Structure formats: structure tokens, C-alpha cells
Amino acid sequence: MSTTAEPVLVTVTQIVATELATTADAIDPDLDLRTVAGADSVKVLRMIARIERAYDIELDDEDVFTVTTVREVTDVVERALAAGAAA
Amino acid sequence: MHDAPAEVAIPSPRAVPVSSPAVSSPVNLVPADSVPADSVAAGSTAAAALAAGTLHAGLATVAARHPGLPLDFPSAGASLTLGELVARADVLAAALTGAGTGGAAGAGVVARDRVGVLSDNAPDFLVALAGVSRAGAAACPLPLPASTRDLPGYAARLARAVAVAGIRLVLVGGRTARMADRFAGAFDGVRLVRVADLTTPAAAGTVPATGTAPAAAGGAAPAGPAVEMSPDEAALVQFTSGSTAAPKGVVLTHRNILAGLTAIIDGVALTEADHGGIWLPLFHDMGLFGTLAGIFTGMPMTVWSPAAFVKDPAGWLTDFLGRGGSIAPMPNFAYDHLAEAVPAPREAGLDLSGWRVAFNGAEPVEPASVERFLTTFTPAGFAPAAMMPVYGMAEATLAVTFPPPGRAPVHRWVDRDLLARDGVARDVPAGSPSARGLAGVGRPVRAMRVRIGGRDGTGVLGDDQVGEIQISGDAVTGGYLTDTGAQPAGAFTADGWLRTGDLGLLRDGELFVTGRDKEMVIVRGVNYYPHDAEEAARDVPGVHRRRCVAYADRSPEGAETMAILAETRLVDDTERAALAAAIRVAVTAALGLAEIAVALVGPDALPRTSSGKFQRLAAREACVPT
């Protein structure tokens, strides 16, 4: 994980924690979100919407639906940011 | 992503007989009142379209009058006119039947075939629907996955429905086409072909020669005449009800559909001055027939993706109102989301006075949700009478009962215990400890009849007695497609009424839905079955002797969930937590449902019948999770 990527992970973790009504330190970046009670598809979509607003990006539904952990969400965001920067 | 058509080639397109057994209509429906076309304003576009006899002819009738009717799909980044949609459908029909190339080529679709339609909310969905209808076949809208994390599981579920319907060609559209590339191999002997490849001259010219449907669309090839079909032929097969283990398709004829659209258009007096907004999936009955009712009326339609609404309910509402939206259907949960997302609509500058019909259906209507929505939005101009709790189902095309226009929602408060124990509704004061609220969902729509039958399928009950809701009428299906070819046991009464499996009561002609007879969970308008959850959970390592029971439950917040009780010998807390998580993952993967509550119990804790079958309802009552 590069140093520039850390803030994305931190931000994403905070957003996930907020949506799940917990604290960031309770969210393991490698936790499979499917195992979390209450992390239903609506909450996941809401998380994505918050992340999109935070970074002013639009994530591909297909990418979004494939992720299972906070770290994977972070990867998707970083790819989108990189693509935006390259465009 | 490559651009070749997503499909699985089979040795010969006609190697398997296409015409699977015709739908047997086991019953002759009691003839309902005929549907006079003039039930809708005489001379209107809707009246002409509804009299056209078939789905595609109805669309063509509207297109002839309103070729420029705008159909917007903001989430798909697409918009087109109805004239363009019908023209594309004509080209598709020709490509499907080979008519565009003199019959020498084509996708090999013949009359009475069943053709799958797999598309997100994009123009391709409606093009495919109309094109398949015009080709004389029945369109089978196929559900999209709730998530793509488990495409193999999704594809396996889909494959069962595809097999039951005898589908050998699936038209994929919109952005779904790309996803379909990834599971096309799951369908044995089924071709997946992109709508675009059959409707776009440029694309058609680049279709590889092997393994794809011949590019019959070929430029401006004449569409040829529509295949003449009787209104009593199947036009659509809906797979939204039935468990994934034993999928069943609701067969709707052209006559069913036109009667169903008539009921909707007549029931809320849709006019060309309305503007419809839909974000429900088009593969869902409410999304599909809500959209078609709008188009048949000749009113502009905007169709978003479900994700667009769920991600940003406030943004959706602003967009809907900004477009002049006046009609929108959605399930109960969505009204909660709107009230939560926009707590102060007037301060936000929203004016809801133009939203004249807010259908609330597809899942149980909660009086508390309705009250909260009205409290939040009436200060911003929302008329209470616009909130319309309705009752409907795929078996009825869509609508069964609507409240009378201009009436604010009606709730009854009845004694909860008496209702549950004796099946009798006795009014009690609102707010009393034993009060249970029931939302009035109105009276039967045009050409629909509703009665309350005994729960064993015999007899008819009187007012205020809880029994099974049974329906009959022109829009009601004549039967199901199943894997055995036989009708599901007890689907119809002896005198031909459809048994809905829902429980309710009538009072003075108004229907109140009280529950469900069948064990089923409805989450955001989608039905899930405990049996399917048990199948997925019982093989998870750590489950004692594959013993588990699933049942419909409610979360502390009141939302429906699938509860799973599993026996285990594990005692270590960490191991038990891991087992619960593993069960959750397994069930989510199998059902595409995340609303799952897992509880573990000790060995032999689950109640069983004398034959060794687990009793779901008894387990729910008796089992205290340890």
C-alpha cells in the first residue's frame, strides 16, 4: 500500500463505518462485508454513493457489485481516481 | 471487455425442439366482465392502443399517434422516442424470425417460442419485449443479480428458470451485455445475443460469422409483417414468483396484458398530460407494467435504474419532480427512504403538488410508513390522496385492487390477537396496546374480481373474516410454466379462481391484506423462500447433521429478513461467530439476499415433525437461540 493510498483507505473505512453505525477502528479492511449483519445491499449502495460524492467520481456498478472488503472498495476508488487523472 | 456478442453456440440452432409443451390451462376462468375499450376515455390514445389486440400492435398504435413520445433512461445515459423504439423492435423482430432476409437466415425464432430478455433499465429491454412479441414469441424477462459477487450462483439460479421456460435464446441488453459475457457458459444449449447486434446495422455488419445469430437485421431491411398472433397466445412469462429451487413462470397472454393495462390506466385515469417515473427494475411486474401503462397512455416516461434511487433518494425525487413527474410506483420501503433522505422538503425547495399518484405496492404496506411519508411531505404540497396503497401481483398482470381516486389512505386498527387467533377483524381504538394497523388497498380494478376463500382452498368467507385472497378476471394468468409441466398443486380453486396465497379480509368491498399463507420473505419487492435458504445453509461445515430451519422474520427495525436457525456442537465463541458468518455468506450467495439473521442452537434443539421434517413455524415460536 503506497503512502498516497492510505488516505483513501482511511476515508473509505470511515464512510463504511458510518453507514454501518460503528466506528472506523471496528472495521478490518480485509473483513468480508457479506459476513456483517446489517450490511445489506441498500447500505452497500449508500456507502458507494457517499464515496462517489466524497471523491466526485462515478464507480462502475459492475466494479461495485464485485467488491467484498473495504480494501477492495479502496482499490476500485483508486483505479477510478487514476482513470480520472489520466483522462 | 470484448465486443463480440455474448453467447454460447450450440451445434445447431434447432437441435432441440423449441416448442416445449404448450401451457396447459387447467382451468377455464369464469368469464369476467368484458373489458370495453371505452372504459378508458373514448377516442384517447390509450383506448385505441388497448383495442389493438396484441402488445406489439398496441405499442405501434401509440407510436403512430405519438412518434415523438420521449422515453428517457437517465441511468443508462440513453433516451429515444417511442417511434424509434417501435422501429428498432420491428428490425429486431425481422432479425429474430429471418423475415428481413427472406426467411433464409435469422435467429430462428418461430411463433410461440419463448425468448429470454436480460437487460438493465435501458431501451434495449423494451425493444426486446416489443420485438419478441412482434415475432410471435413470448418474452421472458429474467431477473438481474442483486450483486455480481456471485455470478456462478446467480447463473445457476437463472439456468433453472431458463430450462423451465424452454428458452434457447436470451436477448441481452444495456450494460448487462458485458456482465453476461462472464456467465454465458452456465447455460447449456442457450444462445445469448445482444439486442444491439440484431438492431444496429453497423454492429450487424461486424458480427462474426461463426457462433452468432446471423446478422439478419442488415441495414434498413424491411421489417416485414408482424407474425399474426391470437390475443390468447402467450406474450410474456414472468419468473418473479416461485422459489429458485422450483421456479415457476406466470404465463400472460396478450389479452391478459391488455386487460391489465386497461385496469391500471382506468384505475387512476392516466392521461397524456401525465409524466411517469419508474426506477423499479423492468424485469419486475410493477416496473414493467407501470412503464407499459404509461407508454400505452401516450405519456412521457422516465426510467431510472434501481441503484439510482437507492443511492440517492433525494436526488431522485428532485429529478422526478423537475421533469414534471406525476405518477410513480414503488414499494413501501422506498417511501421510508424518501422521508429519511428529505426530512424538510419545503425548506429544500421541493414542490410535490404535481405528484398525483404515488403507488405503494409490491410489498406489504405499512401504515406507519405511509403516515411518516405524509407527515414529511404534505407541507411541501404532497396531496394525501396521491398516496395509493395498492395490491397486485404478477399473476394478475399487475393490479388487483386500487383505492378510489381522490381518497387519502385508509387504515383500520384491529385487535391483533383476535386477528391472529380467530382470523376475525374487530376494530379497536388506534394506539391501544392490542391494535394492529391494516392498510386499505381499495377495491378490485376493472374486470377483476376478488373474494376471500377458506385457507384450505374451499368455501367463501364473509366480511371481516380472514382467509385466502382469491382473484379472477381477464388480467389473471391461466397457468404457470413449471419444471414438470404440471400446474403447481392448489394454484387454482375448483371453480377456477387463482389462489394468491396471501391472507386478507374484505369489508364493504375494500380489501385489507393481513399476511401471507405461504412461507415467504419479501425484501424490496422480491420474493425469497426459506427452503432455498435451508438448502444453502445446511452444508456449511459446523452445522450439526445438516440441521437448520429458515423462516420469514422481522428485524428490530421492522424490515423483513430471512432468519436461519442452525444446530451446532460448537461452543467456542469465535468458532460460533465464524460459523454464523459462513452461513450468512452461503445463503447470501445462493439467494442473492443480504437481509439474513443467523442464530445458532444446540444439537437437537430444532422441533421436528413425526416424519423428521423440521417445522419452520414451530421453530420460530419455540426456539430460543442460545
UniProtKB/TrEMBL annotation, chain A:
Organism: Parafrankia soli
Matching Pfam families: PP-binding
Residue ranges crossing the lipid bilayer per the database entry: none
Residue ranges occupied by any Carrier domain in the UniProt entry: 6-81
Signal peptide (from-to): none
UniProt protein name: Phosphopantetheine-binding protein
SUPFAM superfamilies: ACP-like
TrEMBL record, chain B:
Alphabetized InterPro entries for the sequence: AMP-bd_C_sf, AMP-dep_synth/lig_dom, ANL_N_sf
Coiled coil segments of this chain: none
Gene Ontology BP term (one): fatty acid biosynthetic process
GO MF annotation list: adenylyltransferase activity
Cellular compartments per GO CC: plasma membrane
Domain AMP-dependent synthetase/ligase: 63-481
Family stated for the protein in its record: Belongs to the ATP-dependent AMP-binding enzyme family.
Protein's recorded name: AMP-dependent synthetase
Organism the protein comes from: Parafrankia soli
